[in-house]
Amino acid sequence: LLGKVENTWKCWQLDDTSRIETPLSRKGEETFPVGLCIDTSSQVNVTLNDDGTMERPPCPTVMVFSTDGVLHSFSAISFKPEHKNINRYLSS
């Protein structure tokens, strides 16, 4: 993963709980990404826990299409206040 802070590009490391991975198929076999897109139009807050007390503002959604024909959706959340929100809201 590459990231830019001010004018410097750096290689960032994510811990295991923060990486996007495709799950095993119904037969227990490995699956792999075959397509990916990033949607920056969400206007819905992201709830981080079951009781709804932890929310983050709308963030990009990463969608991954896997070899078993499943479309997986992941929220790209940053907890660093210096990271700007890149979502672009569509006007109706």
UniProtKB/TrEMBL annotation:
Known InterPro entries for this protein?
WD40/YVTN_repeat-like_dom_sf
Q: Source organism's superkingdom?
A: Eukaryota
Protein name in UniProt: B30.2/SPRY domain-containing protein
